[in-house]
Design brief:
three-stranded mixed beta sheet; two-stranded antiparallel ribbon; globular; 55% helix; Reverse transcriptase domain-containing protein
């Protein structure tokens, strides 16, 4: 009886995977992903994948194929996995579409990697500014946005809600380096004097836009299913923010008293209408938080680079 059930399950899984591959046409992509609940489930899916590739004369690059055991803690999975007769390696970390994923399901590694890439991008941006001898503050900000910010904030709405301070420090390091300030220069004063647009606001805006896209998805889409499950778990007071993306967002929104009505009106149109006011409220909250810690007697002394004279914005 068990063998019959197993054969039925395998056959159904195989047919479903083949239909999905034929419909989506994504299997030949080297970035394809299989999700499994258990090691047994993963072995079955690897078998189905092998059979499909064999029938359709496709190959899998086993050197780039890794398995990651996502878990809260404890030892990682070490069960031997095979794709045909070839072993498939386990890995504690995998870079997927430019984002580092760790087995512990936290975004710290991705945040640190983004900060490191941003430091490299900062050097390229400052070199570009020096080579063109720009005299425009607006042009400087455009180069920062196009080279540094895009590198720093790539997919940050997914992994960065717990690490907004790391992202902000990377932003500040660029401007301190640009203005030849030591890294110990007070950050609040610098942000205020430059009327700086905080990267935290950009991450929140991207997060809200992502939820709007989730709400537009069909109900069978995995991102939408995960979102509603996380939303359900976030209603539990004991929900751990480390492992719940929605709880992380709730804490940010609660910190500046964002309207709670968004959680009771889960429609794309409503969330779209609320994004401007929520981000504006968050920006004002961050600005006031900086003002609370600024010493009015303390002035930031600017030393401008020799290659241009900045037209600094008027201090608000």
């Amino acid at each position: 009886m068990v063998n019959i059930v197993t054969k039925i399950f395998t056959s159904a899984l195989k047919n479903r995977l083949i239909q999905w591959i034929d419909h989506a046409g994504v299997l030949p992509d080297e970035q394809a992903v299989l999700l499994a609940n258990t090691t047994f489930d993963l072995k079955k899916k690897l078998t189905v994948l092998r059979d499909y590739c064999s029938i359709n004369s496709l190959s899998v690059n086993l050197e780039k194929t890794k398995c990651v055991h996502f878990r809260r803690g404890g030892p990682r999975e070490r069960t031997n996995l095979l794709y045909g007769d070839n072993p498939v390696d386990w890995s504690e970390e995998y870079v997927y579409l430019g984002v580092s994923f760790m087995g512990l399901s936290l975004g710290l590694t991705a945040a640190r990697a983004a900060a490191q890439r941003a430091r490299t991008a900062s050097g390229a941006a400052i070199s570009a500014l020096a080579s063109i001898c720009t005299e425009s503050w607006e042009g400087t900000l455009r180069i920062y946005d196009s080279i540094v910010a895009t590198t720093l904030l790539y997919a940050s709405h997914i992994w960065g809600l717990c690490y907004l301070d790391i992202l902000e420090q990377s932003q500040l390091q660029f401007f301190k380096r640009l203005l030849l300030h030591p890294l110990g220069t007070p950050s609040a004063e610098l942000k205020h004097e430059l009327a700086m647009s905080n990267v935290k606001v950009r991450v929140l805006r991207a997060t809200l836009k992502w939820i709007r896209k989730l709400l537009d998805m069909r109900d069978h889409r995995i991102p939408k299913i995960c979102f509603y499950r996380l939303l359900q778990l976030s209603k539990n007071p004991r929900s751990d923010p480390k492992y719940n993306w929605v709880t992380q967002l709730r804490l940010i929104l609660d910190s500046f008293n964002a309207p709670i009505s968004i959680w009771s009106n889960l429609t794309s149109a409503y969330w779209r209408s609320q994004i401007p006011s929520i981000t504006k409220l968050y920006s004002a909250h961050l600005r006031l938080s900086d003002l609370d810690i600024i010493d009015p007697k303390h002035l930031v002394k600017y030393r401008f680079p020799d290659f241009w004279a900045l037209a600094l914005p008027t201090t608000l």
